[in-house]
Automatic annotation (TrEMBL):
Protein name: Cytochrome P450 90B1
Biological process according to GO: steroid biosynthetic process
CDD domains linked to this entry: CYP90-like
Residues the record lists as binding heme: C486
Record family assignment: Belongs to the cytochrome P450 family.
Amino acid sequence: MSHSLLSFYSLSSILALLPLFIFILIKRKQSKPKLNLPPGNMGWPFLGETIAYLNPYSATTIGEFMEQHIARYGTIYKSKLFGEPAIVSADAGLNRFILQNEGKLFECSYPRSIGGILGKWSMLVLVGDMHRDMRVISLNFLSHARLRTHLLKEVEKHTLLVLNSWNQSSTFSAQDEAKKFTFNLMARHIMSMDPGDIETDQLKKEYVTFMKGVVSAPLNFPGTAYRKALKSRSTILKFIEGKMEDRVKRIQEGNESLEEDDLLNWVLKHSNLSTEQILDLILSLLFAGHETSSVAIALAIYFLPGSPQAIQQLREEHREIARAKKEAGEVELTWDDYKKMEFTHCLAVSNIICDDDDVMPFKVFTTEQHYGYSLITQDYVVKVVNETLRLGNVVRFLHRKAVKDVNYKGYDIPSGWKVLPVIAAVHLDPSLFDQPQHFNPWRWQVLRFQIINGHVENNGNSRGSCPSKSITNNNFLPFGGGPRLCAGSELAKLEMAVFIHHLILNYHWELADTDQPFAYPFVDFPKGLPIRVQPHSLLPN
């Protein structure tokens, strides 16, 4: 049979089967249910809307991009961001749903460039069992007991080192001073490094270069911030590895120092992590423990001068703590002192709680939730730390990915799509927080009553005491939530409270130049938050 005849038969067979193929394709398309995606705009090919999404804006707002999209599409919308189709959520309920279903319906999914610079074993990018194991290590070392017995003392020591270096009537960058405090604290906490030592200063210099690359565009070309950061990362890891080798040798020789009760020692003794895993863990904790806490402290320094009443109430609270300590003959802060800082950091309460579900003898209300009861008395449990974190939003949004097809309130979220819960949008939502762009620590105050025989009466607690049961506003998620709740959240609050305690007692400060926090999306002060300080003492004579 000739080749031409064979070709003719082959073509005839294909043409005969073509209607069948078309029929099958049509049937498949018809059988596949149409997705009900949220409304939105996918933007340009590949880039999508990423450039507009990341355009800098005032950190006490959600930015023009989010405002326009929410006004046009609602609090849940689709887009294309970071090179992927995405669902963006400014919806409090969906954000909680995403965080609560971590590892089930969603998983962490940061851009590859973040993993490239922080390391593949960084807690920020790990998922599943490995993330859980790394997080357990961090939680063990940041346990409540350790906060009380070790870290409180170190936090106060490093606070005073920074504050005592301030000269009378001097002007400087408050942001830089906050970063100095948190970096020195974490270097000591992780590797027993002392502030002012040559090796500490060298490490800090490399770390600054590293951080500039973390928050820059991931352009791996000579001269770019990202390329310089990769080089600094290599230098930092070599330094940490040298510390590890020296520590292992001394542990084997039984020549340990009692002062080296740090994370490095703990990991070497109590984990089976490889060298690479330990290096990435230490680098990621140095990043997380230094950057976010320093920004939060700078934000508190920025917000407080705009609220003289808040500063006055802080002075009263901390002066009373100092007076009681002097009478007791004590110098260093204790855990009991920390618990007395109720206006500064006491746990926020926003939901109703009851001691007994049947009798309901005790209720707690927020000032915005009166529930029809006559308001008899107020118990102030307000929180400067909470309000700073709510308004400043150190962490603006999170990177997640749907690992299964999800339907939420009628909207489909396809498996494989990026999902971005925008924490800042919820914290600045006027339907959830009254006048959300106003710094108002009193929004966290609590109204307490005891209900006896149908009558509302004062429950007898003294003004200023913390609630006997602590529950948090479930729309307030400054540290994330679910299985990936920030392991260092309690340390961060301790750092802020202790720093504010000594700042309030020893200094008056004012902004020396016009500056404000911007979201890039990381929060930063363009001018470094220049302040002018004047020493004063509220300490009793």
